[in-house]
Amino acid sequence: MNSNIRWKLLVTIGAFLLFAAVGVYPIVASYYGINQPSLLMSKLLKLGLDLKGGVHLVLRVETDTALQTETEATMERVREALQTAGVTATATAVSPVSFRIDGVPPAADIRQASTDADANFERSPGANGSYVFTMKPNVERDLRAEAVVQARQTIERRINELGVAEPNIAQQGQNGDEILVQLPGVTDVNRAKTIIGSPGVLELKLVDMGPFPTKEAALMAYNNNLPPDLEIVSGSPGSSDGAGGSTVFYVLKRVAAVRGTDLRSARPSLDNNNRPAVSFTLSGDGARRFGQVTEQNIGKYLAVVLDNRVDTAPRIDGRITDQGQIFGNFTQQEAADLALVLRSGALLRVSTTCRSRRSAPASAPIRFGRASWRRSSAC
Known about the structure:
Alpha-Beta Plaits, Gyrase A, domain 2, 34% helix
């Protein structure tokens, strides 16, 4: 009898100790920031958004941006091919999936100039030497699908960089162009939204003229007739030495010498004055093109354009190939976040909806996206 009681007592104590080790210790240790032993800490209950809070976002990928990028790039290639053949034609983007070429004389061989474009676009002749190029339906469909997949993969890489435990990322929506993102335990909501939703589109473009204090002044420099291969892009005063005012304007080459897709890596660093900066390396093809551009334009200025805004415009003092640096008035955190965005890939423009666990009206005044409120995470 005494033996049975002893065994029952030992089993009860053992069960209690096991429960304390597996069920209680990980919670207490986590509260005090203790992460050892790892075997027990791995048993910690993972709290979801409803219990732990965090970020709940619905991102809608604006697939028209991908179509417009492809259309404008093809349009520029056709115009440049005609210019090489001695034909001065004008090119105009009609929609995200079509563009028009005007001023092609009857003697010009439009088929030769549009060889690359004909693979993805239907060419229709018009009056007075005009041609309309319209993207083929199968190409449009594939590009839209690829844009969503690319955006989802980029978001996943960025969230992995943030170190969020057990995030939930899922594609949804009637058209399949929405991405659900749930980040349990994230407290710095604004930083998470900025990093996840930032396009992070980096372009290096040659400066033709500038900076100018206003856009009108930039146009006046060209007698209000800006050539088709140029564009006006705004920038911060710090992007040029001695520039004043709140915003300045540059006239840049429309076609980028190097794009963010040519990046191989990006990391926080320090510039020559020990200020936070971002250093990057280029792929083999990007380094080759960048080397040619910088070698042919020594003494000119090269604009570093991030998300269609000039961050800085340094002078080209020599040939640059596979390594470069972005510098400006960055804090250490801003430099680290910029490197993260560039390193994890460029993201197409997305629309953001934040859903809050706090009570909110059925229709929320949030810019972009569809506001569908329910009990979920704190925003």
